[in-house]
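One thing: can you check what follows?
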Amino acid sequence: MGNSAPRPFLPESAAVTGPTPLPGPRGEPRPTPPPAPGRPALYRVLIVDDQPDIRRLCRLSLAPDGLACDEAGTGPDAVAAAAKRAPDLVLLDVDLPGFNGEEVLRRLRQAPPCPNLKVVMFSGAAGGDELSRILLAGADDFLIKPFSTIQLRARVKSALRLKDAQDRSDLLNRNLLAVNAELEKTVQDRDAEVIHARNGLVLALAKLVEHRSAETGPHLMRLQQYCRVLAEAAAALPGFAPRIDANFVRTLGDTAPLHDIGKAAIPDGVLNKAGPLTPEERAVMQTHTTIGAETLRAVVRQHPFSTGFMHMAIDIAQHHHEKWDGSGYPDRLAGEQIPLAARLLAVGDVYDALRSPRVYKPGMSHAGAMEVMTQKSPGHFDPALLDVFRRCADRFDRVYTDFDE
């Protein structure tokens, strides 16, 4: 509310003439990508603005492209509408009555109504710093009012193309995991000892690295349990249910011990240093992510077995120190660019690190670790997974107590 009035997006005569496809690389019309297998033919867009004229113009501009549009005029109405009819994309004004667009964005990211939800913010008064903050908070794109129909449709199509690609990637990953599960079930039915031996060797190898880094106690067993607890709780939410099944949970637990496998290559003087690391030493320590992932890739190249298992192991080895806001390492991935398995493991890994005593620090209480993770670590974790963590945190505390040092 209070934004400058928008200029007309499109003349009334043009509003019903049908869409103009975005040009391709040689100027030819580029068709809207076909829907992913199993999804409805139409995308659903939720338009949120307190000005009815803007909502109407957005709806008229997007309807010819085959987009089903819902509307909301306040922050609470927007959250309710998203929960009732899960949109693929939300066009969200920054200034709203009830609570503002940033609060709506936060709630949508904490409890996504669907996987890979896209949010495009718009405002007539936001400055560069405010828009940057909104993007870090989880928005996918933004528009400055007044904006043209071409700008609106281009941003919407771009966001939906990205969602479509991510949906297809999720589907392929699910199929890969399902095929791998079938193959492993066949092997397990024929010779269950092979799977048990693999998991036992993984745990033994990871324990060697754990002992070398002077981290005593059942850290790896706790981490496996944290991952399973968090993944099972996340699977109950609409935003994660299509991507987390029983096989995903089982594979995550089995691969979790390999997350720090690259520490085997870190010099003792850096790995076991009691005091703070220098910038040069910190850079060396951070290479454990890429070393671990490349080691596992080399295994896959020479022995292409258990593909789903090994690919998840590579994901968590390389990306378990990435942060939601893009400030992590080694690749500075942000948001949903970070593999889901790595985002899940990061929550358990940080929780256990905070609880565990070390030569350079005492261990925190459960309440202290909760405070650090939920209130003092902005931008570190996936907001939706952090909300799941809050709900099942008492189970994390039980895991730590059951496997206490």
Strands lie at 43-48, 67-72, 89-93, 118-123, 141-144. Residues 1-41 have pLDDT under 50 and may be disordered. The chain has two domains: 43-165, 191-402. The chain is about 55% helix and 5% strand.
